């Protein structure tokens, strides 16, 4: 059995009076692309924030790389869970070089990262001229700077055109082939079908399904099966 990169057991989290997670379980195998699916308000972003150290649960347990969670493990985690925090006056190259200095990593990887996320042609332009999709691509590059073992992404194809979606999908598959574990959320079933090894479906703060995406299909129809699962939840 493959080693586990992320294991979540019985996580609960309240945001004010609202229950965001209600005893959520999750298991992500090392080296796979795992897709987190669910409607708005299901708890996906809250779960990803906890996994990436941006939030703490009320109860339950989290393991990273086979050990109980410790903040030191976050050095091996790259995350883009909210819209990238970028400076309008600086370019992609300047952002990456600044983040490299802050993290103490070699800036020599900057050209390679820009190429990987399809931003090489825009590397010298100020962020103020970027579309939303271009900002997300730069955010992914920043998350990859430290060459993480685990990459956590919340809706990384947000604002991308079909070519951009394809490029991100290709990048995630290439990262997994190189041994990086990817945990990614999305509303796009088609993208998940072409990207993920396994998926989890979150609804009302609970995991309703975990396994191969094909297992969700109802009479061969993936979308019909997905909505039927949500209706039962």
UniProtKB/TrEMBL annotation:
Domain ABC transporter span(s) in chain numbering: 6-229
One Pfam family recorded for the sequence: ABC_tran
Protein name as catalogued: ATP-binding cassette domain-containing protein
InterPro entries assigned to the protein according to its UniProt record, in alphabetical order: AAA+_ATPase (IPR003593), ABC_transporter-like_ATP-bd (IPR003439), P-loop_NTPase (IPR027417)
Keywords linked to the UniProt accession: ATP-binding, Nucleotide-binding, Transport
Spans through the membrane: none
GO molecular function, one term: ATP binding
Family: Belongs to the ABC transporter superfamily.
Lineage, broadest ranks: Bacteria, Bacillati, Actinomycetota, Actinomycetes, Streptosporangiales
SMART domains (alphabetical): AAA
Matches recorded under PANTHER family: ABC TRANSPORTER, ATP-BINDING PROTEIN (PTHR43335:SF4)
């Amino acid at each position: 059995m493959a080693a586990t990169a992320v294991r979540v057991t019985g996580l609960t989290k309240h945001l004010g009076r609202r229950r965001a997670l209600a005893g959520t379980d999750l298991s992500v195998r090392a080296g796979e692309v795992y897709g987190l699916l669910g409607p708005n308000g299901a708890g996906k972003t809250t779960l990803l924030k906890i996994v990436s150290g941006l939030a703490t649960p009320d109860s339950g347990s989290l393991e990273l790389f086979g050990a109980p969670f410790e903040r030191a493990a976050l050095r091996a985690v790259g995350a883009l869970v909210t819209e990238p925090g970028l400076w309008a006056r600086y370019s992609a190259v300047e952002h990456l070089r600044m983040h490299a200095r802050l993290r103490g990593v070699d800036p020599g990887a900057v050209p390679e990262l820009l190429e990987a996320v399809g931003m090489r042609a825009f590397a010298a332009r100020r962020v103020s001229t970027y579309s939303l999709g271009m900002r997300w691509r730069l955010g992914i590059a920043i998350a990859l700077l430290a060459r993480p073992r685990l990459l956590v992404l919340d809706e990384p194809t947000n604002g991308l055109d079909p070519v951009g979606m394809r490029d991100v999908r290709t990048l995630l598959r290439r990262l997994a082939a190189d041994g990086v574990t990817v945990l990614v959320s999305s509303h796009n079933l088609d993208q998940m079908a072409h990207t993920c090894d396994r998926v989890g479906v979150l609804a009302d703060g609970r995991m309703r399904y975990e396994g191969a995406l094909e297992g969700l299909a109802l009479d061969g129809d993936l979308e019909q099966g997905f909505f039927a699962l949500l209706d039962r939840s």
